[in-house]
Recover the amino acids of this structure.
């Protein structure tokens, strides 16, 4: 399995704070890599640094054969990286349709892709012409993910998609992400929900204090409660 | 919420029409206070014309504010430069301006306005690259830089044209009024209303019917996410800044014709009104800016007629009232 994304010795400073302290990680093509860790471990900063939203102070980031650590965010996005931030960041003043039109960078909306998305998230069809700001938190998350997959992407960076959502919506999101995975997408997923992590993850990276402290298979971590307690402070079951 | 079947029609977006009703309510409210219908109609027409001119000048600023989070205190320079460029263009064509033919007048006036827009837009390019670019995200420095830029622009105009007021007479065919019974509505005010309305419709069409407009509206709300979707927002910033400057130039020409004079500090009083319009409209909202401009002009005209002593503070009171009702403006677009 080739690595689609590779970070080597990446450091990121935000103001005078040294957040990422030499991150080394790889994300294999066609797999879902979970990024776990306590709050403040540097998970969101890692995604934002890959996306170019915060510039790496040193180190190398490669997407396939391309070096991207010095590239601007739009250029990284145009290389095929989709980003779903923790805040969802839907455009509240735009309708659901307009949010997706904007995300479909390469042309008009593809009806078959849209039908596929509506299959998972029927609420988006229902509120097609409603302002995104009027959607519920779960619906906004659906829109945020739909925006990232409205066109094929090489790599999806998704930050805590299930955070604060009702169980039924979490299940719908998991099904959607599973389907995206079955289609061969490569995903780097920050997630605190154990069920989601176990269902979706092929590999796992655990962060602490701005460094990767564990890497391995998700199934192995899910089966090893003492390891979970050592790495995350409590077992993943408790995160459900 | 009840689920819709797959075949059900999709719901239409809800419209927030309360702010739209404000100017209508205000206009109706003052009828008994003014007493005379003809005076009310004249004042209302004057308000709409003044509002349209302020809207043209403020529309660019609200997008610059909303999209780029830039406090441009030098916006008035584009207004004055636009007006001065028009005087330069119109000077050799005095005969055409004085001709009693609408088409001859417009044949000179339209190119003058377009050239003013081009020069103001080009000046906007220089200002964005030289003054704004180094201070993105730093509000205090933006205020210092753009205020400094305004002073430099005004002093340059003084140095080039001198301190005297330059007359800018209305073209002959735009003088006088349309008489409807005992109501007189100045022809130029009708033209100003039409141009303002055309600019508003054009901006709305671009913002709502084109992908460029979607990008601007999205960028006003969340620049970072627009970039994460693969769009280079800096270029968009520059385009919006230049368009805003060009519109200020057009507004400067229209205001100069309205007052029939040009001077270097002509924008000083206008800038206060423009900022009030941008704030009460909601930063980045063209619809809010349009309604805000009409409200400001109505308060200035009705207030000046009914309570002249309150004219100076009437728009500040309007701003306070609107912000108490809607703290982020009539149509809040950004969270700022």
């Amino acid at each position: 399995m080739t690595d689609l994304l590779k970070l080597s010795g990446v450091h990121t400073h935000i103001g005078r704070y040294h957040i990422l302290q030499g991150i080394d990680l790889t994300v294999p093509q066609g797999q879902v890599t979970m990024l776990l860790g306590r709050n403040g471990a540097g998970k969101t900063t890692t995604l934002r640094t890959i996306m170019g939203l915060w510039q790496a102070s040193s180190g190398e980031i490669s997407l396939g054969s391309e070096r991207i650590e010095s590239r601007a965010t739009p250029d990284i996005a145009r290389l095929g990286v989709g980003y779903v931030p923790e805040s969802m960041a839907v455009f509240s003043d735009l309708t659901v349709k307009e949010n997706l039109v904007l995300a479909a960078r390469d042309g008009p909306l593809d009806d078959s892709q849209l039908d596929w998305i509506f299959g998972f998230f029927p609420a988006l069809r229902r509120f097609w012409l409603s302002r995104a700001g009027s959607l519920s938190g779960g619906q906004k998350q659906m829109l945020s993910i739909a925006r990232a997959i409205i066109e094929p992407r090489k790599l999806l960076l998704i930050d805590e998609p299930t955070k604060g959502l009702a169980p039924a919506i979490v299940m719908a999101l998991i099904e959607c992400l599973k389907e995206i995975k079955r289609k061969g997408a490569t995903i780097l997923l920050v997630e605190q929900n154990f069920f989601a992590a176990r269902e979706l993850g092929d590999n796992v990276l655990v962060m602490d204090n701005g460094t990767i402290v564990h890497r391995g298979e998700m199934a192995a971590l899910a089966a090893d409660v003492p390891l979970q307690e050592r790495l995350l402070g409590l077992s993943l079951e408790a995160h459900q | 919420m009840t689920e819709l079947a797959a075949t059900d029609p999709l719901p239409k977006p809800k419209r927030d029409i309360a702010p739209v009703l404000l100017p209508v309510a205000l206009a109706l409210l003052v009828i008994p206070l003014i007493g005379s219908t003809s005076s009310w109609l004249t004042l209302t027409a004057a308000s709409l014309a003044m509002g349209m001119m302020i809207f043209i000048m403020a529309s660019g600023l609200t997008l610059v504010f909303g999209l780029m989070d830039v406090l441009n205190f030098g916006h008035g320079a584009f207004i004055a430069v636009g007006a001065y460029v028009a005087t330069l263009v119109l000077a050799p064509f005095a005969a055409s301006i004085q001709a009693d033919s609408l088409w001859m007048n417009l044949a000179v006036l339209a190119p003058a306005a377009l050239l003013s827009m081009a020069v103001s837009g080009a000046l906007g390019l220089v200002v964005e690259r030289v003054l704004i670019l180094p201070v993105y995200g730093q509000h205090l420095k933006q205020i210092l830089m753009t205020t400094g830029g305004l002073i430099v622009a005004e002093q340059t105009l003084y140095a080039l044209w001198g301190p005297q007021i330059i007359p800018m007479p209305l073209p002959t065919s735009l003088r006088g009024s349309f008489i409807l019974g005992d109501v007189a509505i100045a022809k130029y005010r009708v033209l100003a209303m039409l141009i303002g309305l055309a600019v508003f419709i054009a901006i709305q069409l671009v913002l709502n019917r084109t992908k460029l407009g979607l990008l601007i509206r999205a960028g006003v709300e969340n620049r970072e996410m627009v970039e994460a979707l693969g769009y280079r927002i800096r270029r968009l910033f520059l385009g919006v800044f230049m368009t805003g400057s060009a519109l200020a130039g057009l507004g400067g020409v229209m205001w100069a014709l309205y007052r029939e004079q040009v001077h270097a500090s002509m924008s000083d009083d206008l800038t206060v009104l423009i900022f009030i319009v941008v704030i009460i409209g909601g930063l980045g909202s063209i619809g809010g800016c349009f309604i805000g401009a009409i409200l400001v002009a109505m308060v200035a005209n009705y207030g000046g007629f009914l309570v002249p002593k309150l004219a100076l503070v009437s728009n500040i009171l309007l701003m306070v009232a609107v912000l108490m009702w809607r703290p982020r403006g009539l149509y809040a677009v950004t969270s700022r």
Residues 36-325 of chain B form a domain with the ABC transporter involved in vitamin B12 uptake, BtuC fold (CATH 1.10.3470). Residues 37-68 of chain B form the longest helix (32 residues). Chain B is about 70% helix and 5% strand.
